[in-house]
Structures are given as C-alpha cells and as structure tokens.
Amino acid sequence: MREGDMKYLFKPRSVAVIGASREPGKVGFAVLRSIIDGGYKGEVYPVNPKADKILGLTAYKSISDVPGDIDLAVIVVPAQAALDVMEECGKKGVRYAVVISAGFKEIGGEGIEREKRLTETARKYGIRVVGPNCLGIMDLYTPLNASFASMPETRGGIAFVSQSGALLSAILDWAPKAGIGFSKIVSLGNKADLNEVDFLAYLGEDPETKVILLYLESIVDGRRFVEIGSTVARKKPVILLKGGVTEAGAKAALSHTGAMAGGVTALKAALRKAGIIQVSTISELFDMAIAFNSQPIPMGSRIGIVTNAGGGGVVTSDLLVSRGLRLAELSKQTIDYLRSALPPVASVYNPVDVIGDAKADRYRVAIEALLKDPAVDGLLVILTPQVVTEPEETAKVIIELSRQYSSKPILAVFIGGGKVEKATKMLIEKNIPVYEMPERAVAAMLGLVSYRELREYVAKVLERMEIFDVDRERALGIIEEARKQNRRVLLEHEAKDVVKSYGVPVAPTKLATSEDHAIEIARRLGYPVVLKIASPDITHKSDVGGVIMNLKSDEEVAEAFRTIISNARRYAPTASIHGVIVQRMVPKGREVIVGATKDPTFGHIIMFGLGGIYTELFKDVSFRLAPLSLYEAREMIAETKAYTLLRGYRGEPPADINSIMNTLLRVSKLVTDVPEIVEMDINPLFVYEEGAGVTAVDVKIVIE
SMART domains, per this entry (predicted)? Predict the structure, then answer.
C-alpha cells in the first residue's frame, strides 16, 4: 500500500454502511446517523436486506446492488456474517473496510480463525481493513464520522490513534472542555490488517495533522515502527502512551543482559532511536498535545516563570528542575529593568514574583521582559485569583504577547475555579495552552523541549553505520553445529569463536576432553592458564566450583581438570558435561560488560556497563537498539558511572575507550547479521590503557 492511498479511507467519495439499522440504539443506526450528522458530503449507501429507506436514504439489499463505486465500507453485521460481507465487498471493488463488528480474535477460540479468514478474504481482493472490533474512524476536515461515537465540533492539528475504543470515547467527550482540536481519530481494534505503523506513516505526511498521539497496548512490527517513527518524528512530534508493559520476561533470562533488559528497557531504547516521546499518563499525553498544537519548539531548556504567588513559583521551579529542565538565569539587563519597573517587594530573579496585588499591566511588564531576554527559551505564566487580580485582562495580555513573540512557547497556569473560568475560556479560544496546575504545564513544556532534543538525536544516530570485515559464515556454522546437538547455549570456546569471527579480540581458548588433552592445550597456549567447566547447563561456573585460575604446570592442570569435573557432577548431577575449557591467562584490565538480548517486539538491544561479578548488583548499564551508530556507542559509554573510571580516576591512566566503542559496534553488527542469537554477554571485557585494546575474557551466547 502506498501511504497516500489512505486518502480513500479518510476522504472517500462514497461510503456504504453494511448492517445499517432503522432502530435507534443499534450500532448500525448510530454509525449511519454519525455519518449523516457529521456533515459528510459524499454518497452514503445504507445496506440492509429488510429495509427500503433508513434515515431518509435509499437502502439496498446487498452491497452488490449499490450503484457506482464504493471507496469505504463500514461493516456492522454480526461476526459470523462478516466473512460473506467481505467477499461481497471484494467483488464490488471496495477499497477500504472499517469492521466495527466484534467476535473475532478478542474472544479467542473460533474468533481467532474467523479473523484469519476475514483477513485472507480482504487480502485476496486488495481491501485494506481497520479493525475488527473497533469504534471506527473520524476525519474532522472531510468531514467524516465513520464510527458510533460523537465527533467533536472543534477541529485542529491533533491526530489520535488508540487501541482502546473505550478510552477513545471518554477522550472525545472530554476534549471540547479542554479546547482540544482533532484532525483525525482512529480506533485500531484488533489490528488484523492496518496497524499503528500504517497510520503513523500516513499521518506523518498529512498536512492537516501537527502532532500524532498514540495509545497502544501492543506494537505489531517493532522494527518498522522505529523506522517509520524516526522519519515522521523529524517532521512532527509523535507522543506515545504505552499500556501493558511488563518485566515478567526478564525472569527467564540466562544472561546478565537478558536479566536486566526487560520490556520497559527495550521500549525506552526503541522510542529514543525513533525520536518518539513517551508519557506515562493520559493527562501528559494531551497536555503535551495541546502545547504542540499551537506553540513553537523552544531553542533550549531554559525556562522563565512569572507568577503572582511566591509559593506557586517555588513549586514550579522545583518541578522544572526535577523533570530535567533548567531555570533560566536572567540577564543583568532584564533584572535591572524589572527592578526599575516592579514594586520594591517584587522578586526580580527567576521565578519573577509580581506579587499578589499585580494587575494585568504588571504582568505585561514581567512577561515581555522575559520574552525579550535571550537567556529565556520558554515561559510559564502562573496566575492565582486574589482580591485585585484581573484574570481576563491578564489573559488578553498573554494572547497579545504570544503573537508578538511567536518564537518562544508561552504556557499559562491559571489556578482556581469560577474566578478564572472566563479567562481560561478566552485563552482556549485563542489557542493558548492553559493548565489548572503547574505540574501539567511543566510536563507540557518538557514535551516541547524533549522533542527538540530527540529530533537532534535522531539526526545524529542516522549517520552512516560503521562497516567491518567479518566472517558471518563462520559464526553461522558454529551456531548451526550447536543446533544439530539440540543446544541453546554455546560452549565458551564456541561463543568466543563467534565473536572472534566479528573481530572482537578474545583470550585464547580451547576445549579439552581429558586430562592429557588439557595439558597438551595448556602447553600450546602457554602458561599460566585457567580451567572452566564446559557445560551448556551450568550458567554460573564459579558457583559450582567450576573455575580454577592461575595454573602454572602440567600437574596443576591435571588436578584442576579432575576437581572441576568432580565438582560439576556433585553440584549439577544432571548437567551435560562436554569437558573443560582451557584458557590462557591474560593481563587484568578494567572490567566492563558488553551484551545483547533479543526483544520479541523490537529486536536486539545492546548493553554496556560495569562488568565482572558486580554487574547485576550495581546495574550501572546503558541500553540502545541495534544497529548502533558510532554516536550511540560513544553515548552508551559516557552515560554510565563506569565512564568516570575509564577516563582515568585518581591518577590512573585513561582506558582504551575507542576499543570499547569498536567492540560495541562489532557486537551490534553480529546480532544484526545473526538474528539466531537471543542473548549474549561478554563479561568481563578487559579494557587496557589507551591504545592497548581490549580482550573478551568470558563470552556467553544463547541461541533460538
């Protein structure tokens, strides 16, 4: 489907309502009434085998009886009949179908099979489907209300795509009071065909949409979601409220990375790469949307506050700083001007307190002074109704100055009830964001600032990926051999060979199957050596006495071999034992971890952090979605506490950070090229002094 073709869904030339009803209270009646009352100008065809006219329109026995072409069919028949109806739509040449009917995948059992057959029929004829089990769609500019909900009167630049029909209904009822103007509204339902990515792509190109809101409980194609999201987010803000996030999957992980990279972590990494803003509440979702709909994107995070209540200014300042925004430091020129223009008891520093007896003229002085100051990127104006306060006149000042200084966002906070009601309505009518409480305005301002930062970030991470000489066939061959033996966990020497094939330096390692074999390998590698149990069933070798280090002679190797095998059989009697790993001891370096885990929705997540035995204790780690850019690799290292140690702490020489970045990029390429890898740890990765490189000391790989 070309994204532009979706115009026949939102701006159809003709609509058929299949299952239209003459009975008020029936969904078929409500949908037809919605289309008519919504002001749709195209042809409308009710389809009902038992009616001649419905709501004054000629009704047809079946869709095949309808004269002319049909762009959109809205299907509201029982689920059992929907399959035959879809077949008829296909023969009629219908382009799009909105299936409102329930009784499909959401009920399980036979509903799953019914939905599969519905989708297959639609695909056979090239019909694109919204739903089933959905509320419908709306386009306020067409206008078209192909749903059984009331369409808001106010249109604007906000598109809302929701997986919950009930939430959508509530929002539509609340929107007029909040002054929210929608462009398009979509209820996704079961997402049997069209899903959030399809609508994201279309809305990204839609000139009537300024900001895209998503409420999702699942994401169908995580990789495509990130790819399309990053394209759209560079043009307009995308804000997501994600429901149903759980960390339950982490419990089953076999690696450190898998244990620490749950669903929330993967989602966060994916959204960052896509440039999509994530919120945690419905309030934040729409508070940000209101701001994006009318306000410019600030140049920075320095925020000014004008208030007539000292307490309000203090609380708002705390909120700003706690959310990662900065309280603007006013210029000396601004401070001197405010000192001369405001009463002596007023606070001329940010937050600027014009004090309780401030009328509109005093607000004007302070607001304009801060908007003129180059050190202020955005402004919050707080008003509490006191005896001499002029809410309506102050609202007029805000409206006027917002137009005059249109390059900086202005958000109003009018705290109160009846005394500020009229002023609040004035601001809403003039498209000025106004909030009841400071925390909501701060969240909205954070959204504006975050979007600027995310847009810049997306541009950086889209820079060319590093390309390496790698041996993919060797890596795949090792994995295939393990699969033939029905093993999910590679033995350590196999795992090291896999990462070595992608250019990661490893400690020389071989598998020994007997004492004599171990001695032979130790001599070949060179003493001293370390011996480790080789078993796919023993995850933490040292916990079962499966690691003995610093062996310097043949005798020590022979004894260590016997001890390790004995310990493993005693502590893990059912474990499959393949022998003992012999590894040459390498110089100790600073210990870090580089890992990867495969998220079922978004694919591989790369992890970096403090390594060794304290990885899961301190959890000093960072995550990014693969494939990594050089910028992301550098950023991953810099945002951990380990970075302080790596740069050189208390006289220690700097570590080879470039080699860590190189390792991160190589691991990223490995898991991208070899998707069979589901979990992976290099822990520890020894990092030596600047220019001396790194060595992978222990490697763990789990495959599908």
Answer: CoA_binding
